[in-house]
Amino acid sequence: xxxxxxxxxxxxxxxxxxxxxxxxxxxxxxxxxxxxxxxxxxxxxxxxxxxxxxxxxxxxxxxxxxxxxxxxxxxxxxxxxxxxxxxxxxxxxxxxxxxxxxxxxxxxxxxxxxxxxxxxxxxxxxxxxxxxxxxxxxxxxxxxxxxxxxxxxxxxxxxxxxxxxxxxxxxxxxxxxxxxxxxxxxxxxxxxxxxxxxxxxxxxxxxxxxxxxxxxxxxxxxxxxxxxxxxxxxxxxxxxxxxxxxxxxxxxxxxxxxxxxxxxxxxxxxxxxxxxxxxxxxxxxxxxxxxxxxxxxxxxxxxxxxxxxxxxxxxxxxxxxxxxxxxxxxxxxxxxxxxxxxxxxxxxxxxxxxxxxxxxxxxxxxxxxxxxxxxxxxxxxxxxxxxxxxxxxxxxxxxxxxxxxxxxxxxxxxxxxxxxxxxxxxxxxxxxxxxxxxxxxxxxxxxxxxxxxxxxxxxxxxxxxxxxxxxxxxxxxxxxxxxxxxxxxxxxxxxxxxxxx
Length: 501
Ligand SMILES: [Fe+2]
Hints:
The protein is of the alpha/beta class and 501 residues long. The chain is 54% helix and 13% strand. A hairpin with a 2-residue loop joins strand 9 and strand 10.
């Protein structure tokens, strides 16, 4: 038997055997449990007992679940109601959330899902009551009413979007969940920008994955900002700066900031951030509450996806684990990969690549040299010129990288991009000797960004090349090493100052 919990949960269902099973399970888990066979019985219980959360079936005699939810909403809107039903439609969702329904479970419901949902709902309720209702109450009833109305409007939006997230989860990928998450944050909190970072625990650093909008935003001191994120992550609790008056790690250009760690199975996996850099919007506890609800829902979706995708840990942790192993040996590769990703994305955007292609470039860019993990230190880190044999070994890294990604069983499209990033336009590259447009477009982009950044960096065996020589080299490689059309675009972007180191 677990520790005694104080919360009392009311379960309403017209099937007695379901109520029995649920009662036994949740009492075993330490909750106090009340049960009712229909809405009318439930109302009687609510009149006499203090209930913290209610789970109800929809179709029941005398008074159904929707009527019960409406009743609870009118009498005590701090009691969250979870509806257990067949697949709800969006219309139906909107109708019921207006009456205080906070979540849906699709029948047949398993006990574990119910428990997770209950924990989530109780957490949200705690935040709702402590941070919003009670604190604001002292500011006067009118303000409270106004706030409740505003909150309700936003909660309506939020519920719909949450519903979309869970529907998305059924068909999407983990990456789509992150993207959806940052999109939702900017939409709901009116943030100028929202970003999601995965925490790369082996190196103790946050790693940016998606951003909305996909622009770079104001100048920030990356190292200080990362340290701030890691501190918040270590605390594991949501963080709000309504009005930035010089918080360490936050650039002065950021006026308002909030950030919520995302936990999966009690382990912090990432952190969701949002900020305002212009205008009048300032974040409040209410916005922080929305962010918390969103991260909890996203975590649930990711967990489901991780099971679905049959990945032991999870997708990003696995991959970035590889990157960090490589980084521990060769710190150049990770920084280089990030710069190559940035430059490729700028070129890709100019070429009119779709969001999906830009996402692929993001993954392939960051992981393009992952195959170097398979190259021995004495070759990979050799300060002098490589022998012919050693160079042959280095040439294996695109194929090794493609195999690593392949063995993880996902991201098929990215595999080819990684594999082909050392192909040459004239067909003399490696590993397959592909020619011209046989080379995937995104690889042709990646190879220009890759060579540009390599030449512009100091390496153990040579110093960086000067700007003029780099540009001459790239221009000279048009049609032999590189796709001439993309080189033209690259040089134009470079001359317009859009590509900087
Ligand atoms: Fe490479």
